[in-house]
Automatic annotation (TrEMBL):
UniProt keyword annotation of Transferase present: yes
Keywords, comma-separated and alphabetical: Transferase
Example GO biological process: dGTP catabolic process
Protein name: Nucleotidyltransferase
GO molecular function, one term: transferase activity
Organism superkingdom: Archaea
Keyword Transferase applies: yes
Database matches in Pfam families: HD (PF01966), HD_assoc_2 (PF19276)
InterPro entries: dGTPase-like (IPR050135), HD/PDEase_dom (IPR003607), HD_assoc_2 (IPR045509), HD_domain (IPR006674)
Domain HD/PDEase: 53-191
């Protein structure tokens, strides 16, 4: 990471302390695309439940870079590979839209080519200038100046690294992205579950036969991370009040899009999308105001996966994959209880998790035993299997509405959805 000009900056981070940045990393941080991440909350609307959760994708991206740099040193990566990993970690969230994962479920239906991973790739390859700023669109130029291939960086972000262990360091069973967000999110929400032994984890990771593995003596640290991850998902990321707020704002955006507004929402920052939605008349404005003033719908139905038959699960999963089908169910539920359109929302956490965090059920990290054998984590610790089976979050289906419709919804929801 040689710095052509010899300059550097010290950034003080609330989690990792002082971080020295220079060279390509400093140049990338200065771009409008990276600075934009300051305006995107890491945890979307979770601040409505956890008031301290105001940290941004900017901080998390710096943290992921810092851990990538440290992990590179621990495992002794060659300079070129270390650069690819560090830059990949810094830019892995560069394509995030407003409020992070809040709108993830509707990208597929409304703007297929604009989910945050693909958008990130387009930004890194210079195919799009997301900020519209005259200084924007220069990321590939900066990378090339330092002899770094933009294609290799976009590849590692999409989990398609030339060397498997490089991809695993950024998107794997234990990776620098997860390690940073678990520690950071636990700190800013005040939820103690996310506390993990970061130092130990960085020390016990090794490269063996082209794969990232964990030394046998580090198994307890990995177990701790997996427990922290499962608990953070049920306690924070899928807290039902957070999901109600996100569901309401998603419906506001869906109605706006259906009316031909805000089709460039994926370019916006948090504040901008909220102001634009509030400025629209009718339902989008009404729902957005309710979210901003925390006048949220109440959970009428919260049920676990065990309470659904296989057929019911399949039906709901199909509905959740098809936005129009889900909207139709919501309209039918609203009609059945005398509510207006947009006053009943249906959330299905299992489908949502598949979209936003496929790694949650990931236990696919191998352990290097003292005798030189390689075993999957699930064979070494029963905890890995137990966590895989654990229902995360506790609820699978949630239906929410203004309080006056709650009792009636509880009576009719099953008949309306499954008859």
């Amino acid at each position: 990471m040689d710095d052509k000009a010899g300059g550097y900056k010290i950034i003080h981070d609330g989690i990792h302390g002082s971080m020295k940045v220079s060279g390509v990393i400093l140049d990338l941080i200065k771009t409008p695309e990276f600075q934009r991440l300051r305006q995107i909350k890491q945890l979307g609307l979770a601040y409505l439940v956890y008031p301290g959760a105001n940290h941004s994708r900017f901080e998390h991206s710096l943290g992921a870079w810092h851990l990538a740099k440290r992990l590179s040193e621990e495992v002794g990566l060659p300079k070129e590979e270390s650069e690819i990993l560090q830059v990949g970690a810094l830019l892995h969230d560069i394509g995030h839209g407003p409020l992070s994962h809040t709108f993830e479920g509707i990208y597929k239906h409304y703007v297929k080519e604009r989910d945050h991973m693909r958008l990130g790739q387009d930004i890194i390859l210079g195919n799009i200038n997301i900020t519209g700023d005259e200084d924007g669109g220069r990321i590939p130029e900066i990378l090339e100046k330092y002899g770094i291939d933009p294609k290799a960086v976009s590849g590692i972000i999409l989990g398609k690294a030339e060397k498997p262990y490089l991809g695993q360091m950024l998107h794997g069973g234990v990776d620098v992205d997860q390690l940073d967000y678990l520690v950071r999110d636990a700190h800013y929400t005040g939820v103690a579950h996310g506390i993990i032994d970061l130092e130990r984890l960085l020390k016990v990771m090794k490269i063996h036969d082209g794969q990232l593995v964990v030394d046998e003596k580090g198994v307890e640290a990995v177990e701790g991370m997996m427990v922290a991850r499962a608990l953070m998902y049920s306690r924070v990321y899928f807290h039902h009040t957070v999901k109600i707020a996100e569901g309401m704002l998603t419906r506001a955006l869906e109605f706006a899009l259906d009316e031909g507004h805000l089709w460039d929402f994926w370019r916006m920052t948090d504040c901008r999308v909220l102001v634009e939605l509030e400025d629209l008349e009718g339902l989008p404005a009404e729902l957005t105001k309710r979210v901003l003033h925390r006048k949220l719908y109440k959970a009428a139905v919260l049920i676990t996966a065990e309470e659904l038959s296989t057929e019911e699960k399949r039906e709901l999963l199909n509905a959740y994959r098809n936005v129009k089908k889900r909207q139709e169910i919501e309209r039918n539920l609203a009609d059945a209880v005398g509510a207006s359109e947009g006053e009943v929302i249906l959330e299905f956490s299992i489908a949502d998790l598949m979209l936003s965090e496929p790694r949650l059920k990931e236990t696919g990290i191998n352990v290097l035993l003292d005798n030189g054998e390689i075993q999957p984590l699930t064979k070494v610790t029963p905890l890995a299997n137990a966590l895989k089976r654990r229902q995360t979050p506790r609820w699978a289906v949630m239906i929410a509405s203004p309080e006056k419709y709650v009792d009636r919804l509880r009576e009719v929801w099953r008949r309306v959805i499954f008859s």
